[in-house]
Amino acid sequence: MTEPSPDGFPAEAAVARYFAAVADRDAAAWADNFMPDGRSEDPVGGEPVVGREALRAFQQGIFDAFPVMRLRPVTYFYGGDQAAVTWTCHVEADGRGADFEGVNTYEVGPDGRIARQKAFWDMAAVQRQLAKS
């Protein structure tokens, strides 16, 4: 795994908080890491989730659906107030599991919180894995 850079790009702290909140299964902290009107497209192509309360409910729904969820960042790329992170994920629910990978992109606002996040991954492939296991 490539660790975040010590150069202190503006997006770095927000990205670290994002993955820490998922690891802690803390939907409120995850949502508070976004600007008040922040938005997430997860996965890209779906309906964007906008605003902290909607973001909190979205992430809590994921935690509720998957009692086991291990989202692990692999490689970080930073440029000014933007970042991209490749990741792997393992989820389990009802005795079924899936392993997949993807890329998240982030744009951070002037307050150091996420203005926009996009997650690129294949939901249909994950659903197929869960149906087979």
- Mean pLDDT across every amino acid position: 93
What is Rg? 14 Å
- Given the C-alpha coordinates, what overall shape results? globular
Number-wise, the strands total 6
Structural class assignment = alpha+beta
Walk me through what this model shows:
The protein is an alpha+beta fold. It is 33% helix and 41% strand. A 6-stranded mixed sheet has the order 2-1-6-5-4-3. A hairpin with a 5-residue loop joins strand 5 and strand 6 (114-120).
Summarize the structure.
The protein has 133 residues and is α+β, with helices and mostly antiparallel strands.
Keywords:
133 residues, alpha+beta, six-stranded mixed beta sheet, 33% helix, globular, disordered N terminus
SSE topology:
Elements: H1 10-23, H2 27-32, E1 34-41, E2 49-50, H3 52-65, E3 68-79, E4 82-93, E5 96-108, E6 114-120, H4 123-132
Parallel strand pairs: 1-6
Antiparallel strand pairs: 1-2, 3-4, 4-5, 5-6
